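Protocol step 4 of 5: obtain the predicted structure for the target chain.
Materials: sequence only (see below). No template structures provided, no constraints applied. The aim of this step is simply to have a reference model before the mutagenesis design in step 5. Sequence pasted as it appears in the construct record:
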Amino acid sequence: MGASSLSPTSRPRVWNLVRQRFKDSLHDESDLEICMETFSLDILLSQLKSVAKAHRNENFLLARLSQFHPSLVYLNDFMTVLVLSFALDGKTGALLWGGICLLLSLLAPLEEIFSEVRTMLEELIAALPGIHPFEDNIILDDKLETAMVDLYIELALFCARAISFIRVRRQHLLPIRQSWPQLSREFQQGLKRVQMLSQQVERETQRAATTAALKWNNEMVTLFQSLSTGHKHAGPELPCFHIPLTLNDRFYIREGLLDQISVTLNPKAGRSGPRTLALYGIGGAGKTQAALQYAYRAREQYDAVLWISADSTVKMAQDYMAVARRLGVLPAAQDTQDAIGAMAKMKSWLADTTCSWLLIFDNADNLEVLEYGWPSGVVGSILITTRDFNASLHPASQGLHVNVFDNKMGTKALQRLLGLSYDYQSNAPLIAELNKQLGGLPLALNQISNYIRQQKMGLKDFLILYRNNQEKLHKRRPTAFDYQHTIGTVWELALGKLTGNAAVLQRLLAFLDPEAIDEATLCNAASTLSKQTSLTDSSLMFLADPIDFEDAKAELLRAALIDRDPRTKSISVHRLIQQATLSGLSPVDQARYFDLCCQLLCQAFPSSWTDQEYVWVYHAWKACEKCLRHVMFLAERFAQVEEELKCLDTFIELLLRCSWYLYEAEYYEESINLLQVCLQALERKGDTNSSRYAQARNVMGLVQVDLRENSKALQNLKIALEIRGKILPPTDWGIGVSISNVGFAYTEQGDLTQAMNYLQRSLDCLLRMGKPNEAEAMYTSVPDVRDLTDEQLLRENLPRYASGMQLLSMIRQAQGRLDEALGFASKVLQFRRQKFGSRFKTCDSLCHVAKLMLLTKKSMAALQLLDECISVASSLPKAEGYLALAYFRKYKIYRAEGHEYAADCLRDAIRAKEIAAERLGSDSDSTLADDDEAAYTQLVAWLLW
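Step 4 output (structure tokens):
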């Protein structure tokens, strides 16, 4: 065992500081003296046995101590190494041994908590580094001692904080269990720090061992050279092209990337300074293949092109030895396996030679390993392939991000990989869809195209097979597939190394939409959750701590498991990495992380219309938009976790909020999809008589009213009304709204008698509730917007004000006051364009204003608006009614002018009308003539609120 390089005179000051930190963490200063009495494992065991005998649960305590004994022995080995290696006082361990002893003694009467704290201590001890590296003759320097001491401090301070936690609650007679999440959070933070420090110790140990080995080898080389008889082997054999890999003919050449590599690395006359470049990106992005392609292309520009695998120190040293022999730096006749010595000789040759050389370090994901093989005084060109983007900062001077293919390039690459037998027009959309499913990952495109070609499968059949068997196909290695990894294994090692908060974050991201995950949304939601007393799972708390969150992200970024856009402060993750993450989780864990994501999104998603209060979320659409894609993604994942999901409440609340926002924003199809998932979940749960079920039916009905599907709408709205009538008081707000909604549906259907009956019931309900103003507003259906100026209207954030003004415009039209009608309608159109963009309400206003323009003899302006409506409606699902109406009104204008375009417009109107009528079924009248405007106005809502 080596000796420490530090002077012993500086140690007392360091250990006094450690002791003071321990003392400051205690609630009762006298506890320090109690701890100092226990300075060894033997004393600890003796005292704990005495404590056990003094309690009624002696057998329980002795059994738990027996189970704890192996961990204590492991800890004793660590302490022995610490004390002996750095020549410390034997009583140095008192803070830790005494802290454990006092903590367990305080908890002896509380069996359950005693067991949980013992488990915490076992986990902390298990995270310590193994002691075997210290048994070698290595140089124990100040870096290694600092790392070891920091580990000791972290363990001791956890004990001190836990002792203080128990003391405070006993002093104030507070229940320990109620405050348990606080200690649990401190433990998780402490465990994370211990794990990080252990990794640091292992790195410092490896570095110290390598330094010692290099020093010994250099001494031996010098010794042998001094004893040499003067015989020297021949000089280096140049040119030398040592590349152990062959070019993959199926590699899709990225000319732009290769050009960038050439500009950075190619040797030029008169050029000085380092030429070092890191290619970084996720596993499977094609970094190695790009480096290989460049090596073959540029071989004539270098005297030596050398390839080194940088996966580990051992492999790197072995490759250096092979290169040294191939180049002639190490005589081929010399029978030696001294890889470390060969690496040292090669690094010296690279630093001293005047020839041009290219050195490629492949798979340099651990930059500390790369550091051992990095030549000093670089005078050649070095290319690195790595997942760690930090390599572009150091040791490389520049970096290029090797990203996955975009849609266009990925589709083109996949087409080339599939070959001519798949190159026909009908396959083009299928190839584009397959590329989308594979996320443009070059490894995936190569592997899957190999499989398709070998199986001679049609693309349509394969897509069906792939959707149902992703995990199996990802792990399946096609014949003659020359890449070391498959989709199923390329991230296996990186994911397996994740622990603590980084692992939690990676698993959370697997349940969110992979693009543009807003960091602030996650952190703010976690911060809100952390303040709730009902919180039972503390694993999200790191999101509320800026430092912990940054640390978790950094670990994932280094492993290239995520990407980050600093401009938008958002995270993205490849969809295949998501799939690999999910594959590594048990069904129970999948359900757990699904629920955690639901909790976060439910905190982030603004509250919508509920049975308790009338709340619109127009003002919070931006916040809704940030969460929308993630809620949609969760809805798609629901089938995977449904059986293991213990509680559906949060998920259902999230679906209801999101579906209401989608209704407001006129994303009707998406709203229906979420509501169907919501209703299915409630029905499978047997929860069909609750306010949530009524709410889902109510929103579904409102969406269908806007889509003019009145029969379906009435069915859903009546179910909602019936449920609310059973579970709510007769004067409840929810009943009044439901009655009103049924009345609106009857109005759209044209059954005005029924509409008046329901609307009158709604008014009665509001009056009985003591809300006459609301009753009057509902009676007139026109909010108080008559006196608003254009600017005031546009500042209002309630689209129903604008809908009220639309109704007022229709009233003025019926009264023959066309100029006033046009003025109101134009305001509404301006508002809806700004608020909704290219959506249904904008189409509604365009058609209405165009009609008023026509009535006021402004046919050219009307045509422009109708063309805009056609453009918008053509891109909207289920907007055929507006398309038909716009074409028909164009037909009327052209017919009046005797224009030849009239026939074309009528034909287009009829075609769109037939599509809409097929969807509406009995809600449309097929007996109306094709040249009757009523045949087209019946296809759209009378008024969109």
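Step 4 remarks: The chain has five domains: 8-212, 240-401, 407-475, 491-585, 786-937. Residues 699 and 826 are 29 Å apart (CA to CA).
Proceed to step 5.
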